[in-house]
Amino acid sequence: MTMTVANLLRRSADAALPVLRGIGDDQLDLPTPCTEYQVGDLINHLFLVVVNFQHLARHEPADFSATPDVTGTDWRARFAAESDALVAAWSQPSALEGVSAGMGLPQPVVGQLVLLDLTVHAWDLAVATGQPYRPDADAVARLGELVEMMDEQARAMKVFGDEVAVPDGADPFTRLLGRAGRDPGWSPA
Length: 189
Prior knowledge:
The protein has a single domain (5-179), classed as dinb family like domain (Four Helix Bundle (Hemerythrin (Met), subunit A)), CATH 1.20.120.450. The protein is built from six helices and no strands. It has helices spanning 5-21, 39-57, 75-91, 107-129, 137-156, 172-179. The longest helix is centred in the middle third of the chain and has 23 residues, at 107-129. It starts with a helix and ends in a 10-residue tail after the last helix.
């Protein structure tokens, strides 16, 4: 069975939610594999992405110009509600039609981009805060194809860092992390 973007988002959000719920307020200043973000910054970024991609699913303008600080709010409950809204927005058949006016990409690709952020940033947050994380295998398979397709363009746009070498025979998620510029062995030394 081919999984829809909405199904993959639901499963990926379900895998990410325990990680976000497990982050303590005392961990917001910890480093993450995203060198430009501490844990709190990455939570704020993830909210920005999840909210704006709801707009993109509805073919509405998105505003990535300012990242709100949600860490002083009940962001754990809000993240659950926003991820539900994200899944609902991408469940509409019209979400996958046409080209995104804001991004200039086919809507199915736009839906996979938010899936990539949700999946990889959940890992970022998990390793930064010492939590287990197991991404959805179907999402990882779909994202492997996306990362391969977008590789050069994403690196040129600084969406991905330089590819990180992974061992031969590495599992699909480890390969995905390396292709997206993450060091799968990163830890908050």
